[in-house]
Amino acid sequence: MKINTRIPLPDRVANYHRVTGFPESIFVAGDGRIVGTWIMGNDYRVKSAYYGGYPAGYLRRIKALFPDKQRVLHLFSGRVDKSVMPGDTVDVNPELAPDYVDDAQTLERVPLEQYDLVMADPPYSIEDCERYQTTMVKRNKVMAALGARLTPGCHVVWLDQVLPMYRKDQFCLEAVIGMVKSTNHRFRVVTVFKRHN
Ligand SMILES: C[S@@+](CC[C@H](N)C(=O)[O-])C[C@H]1O[C@@H](n2cnc3c(N)ncnc32)[C@H](O)[C@@H]1O
Fold this sequence. Notes:
Blueprint: H1 9-20, E1 26-28, E2 34-39, H2 58-65, E3 72-75, E4 88-91, E5 100-101, E6 117-120, H3 126-132, H4 139-149, E7 155-160, E8 171-180, E9 188-195
Parallel strand pairs: 2-8, 3-4, 3-6, 4-5, 6-7
Antiparallel strand pairs: 1-2, 7-9, 8-9
């Protein structure tokens, strides 16, 4: 697959504010990256009630930043709401009935070349893994598996409490957006990588 669309970052930000109607909270910084903060406000519940699921409104925000994307892969998919953002799903847990039961650290069964956007939401800690009955993911291995086979121009939107280690000759960092949910919830960061051309 060839990815043709190249929306400049200022246009992505403008589309985000136009579509969501939220007050300006993300900007293109002097170094050319998108930075800012999302305060999820009252929109923090998880519709599926799945532990660690995306807060309501998260996918809508990402969609507004990436209106050009045609083929989405939900990595660590859990019970992601595909009615908001359609796409294929990958999870290691077969009980969740993902499109691909696979380990994100290898992704041998997944045709990565076909996607132009990867949404990644790994477990953040060993305590989280206990809830999912999985072992802790090595983030650098996931990034290596993605970097080896994603098509140039593909974006990876990674929600986490840690910046995953990545190869600078494979990915550039295009956005860093802090995410605040409600009181007593952990802060998270949305990191957006682009596979180099
Ligand atoms: C934070 S949850 C994702 C929740 C999802 N964003 C949602 O909205 O429902 C993390 C998911 O990663 C899965 N997981 C854990 N280790 C994995 C691995 N090595 N490969 C693929 N999936 C894994 C868990 O089964 C769990 O469903």
